Amino acid sequence: MKGLHIFADLYNCPDSVLLTSADELRTLCMAACRRAGLTVLGEHFFQFDGFDSLQAGGATGAVVLAESHLAIHTWPERSGATLDVYVCNVTADNSGKAEKLYEAMITALRPADVLVDRVWRGRDLPVVQAKAA
Amino acid sequence: MKGLHIFADLYNCPDSVLLTSADELRTLCMAACRRAGLTVLGEHFFQFDGFDSLQAGGATGAVVLAESHLAIHTWPERSGATLDVYVCNVTADNSGKAEKLYEAMITALRPADVLVDRVWRGRDLPVVQAKAA
C-alpha cells in the first residue's frame, strides 16, 4: 500500500484549452500517464458549462491506474487547477513515474505559481497470507 | 478552488466483498457520495485478479464529482485500502459533506486502524473576470 501522493494546486495558468476542454484534458492525462510508464485502466472526464455566456466552463476527471490514480479539476475562471498524482509501489518503487507524470502535467498547464506537497502513504504491515481451503 | 481533502490509509479491515469486488465497491461509493449530498458525474472501477489462486484480487476506482472526487484502492492481501475524499466548496462550504462521505466509507469498510490526514486545498485568489468580446 506504500506509494507517493503528489497533490498540487496550480495557479496563474495561461489561457489554454486544457482548462476548458474535457476532451483535450483527457488526451493530455492519458498520454502523460502512458509516457510515464503507468498502466491506464480507465478514466472518466466531464465538461462543465461556464458560469455565464462569457466564460468557458472547466473540466474535471480522473484516470484510474493499476498503480492508483491521477485526478484533475480545472477552474478557468481562476486560471487554475488542482492536481493529484498518486502512484503506489506495486512491485517496485514507482515514485520516479509519479514525478515524471507530475512534471508532464506542469509542463503542459504551465502554472506561474504552484502549491505542491508530497505525502508518502502507507506503512509496513505484514501481508496476511491466504489460507488454502 | 478551496476545499477539504481527506486522505486515509485503512488497515486491518475485516474480510469483505468490498475489498475484493469492484462492483460492490462501486455500489458503496456511488451510494455514499449521493447520501452525502454530492453530485456524481461518473465513475470508473476496475477488478484486479488475485496474486495467486488462493487470494482474491483487489478493486480500484474513482468517482468524479461536481465537487471533485472520491478515489479508493483496496489491498485484500493486506486487509487494507487507501481512500481519498476531496470536496471543493463550489458555491458553499462542503466540508460537512466530505466528512459525511468519509464516515460512510469508514463505517462500511470497518478498519481497525486508520492513518488519516486532512488538507485544506487552495487559497484565496481574485477571480479573473471574463471580458466581453
Give a written overview of the molecule.
Two copies of one chain form a homodimer. By secondary structure, the first copy, chain A, is an alpha+beta fold. In chain A, helix 2 (22-35) runs antiparallel to helix 3. Chain A contains three helices and six strands. In chain A, strands 2-3-4-5-1-6 form a six-stranded antiparallel β-sheet. The interface between A and B is large, with 47 and 47 residues.
- Tally the beta strands of chain A: 6
Radius of gyration of chain A: 17 Å
The rough form of chain A would be described as: elongated
Pick out the low-confidence regions of chain A: none
Number of helices of chain A: 3
Task: Note the gap between the termini of chain A.
Answer: 26 Å
What does the largest sheet of chain A look like? 6 strands, antiparallel
Average pLDDT for all residues of chain A: 91
Keywords:
homodimer, 133 residues, alpha+beta, 6 strands, 25% helix
Per-chain topology:
The structure is a homodimer of 133-residue chains.
Chain A: E1 3-11, H1 17-20, H2 22-35, E2 40-47, E3 59-65, E4 68-75, E5 80-88, H3 95-109, E6 113-121
Antiparallel strand pairs in A: 1-5, 1-6, 2-3, 3-4, 4-5
Helix pairs in contact in A: 2-3
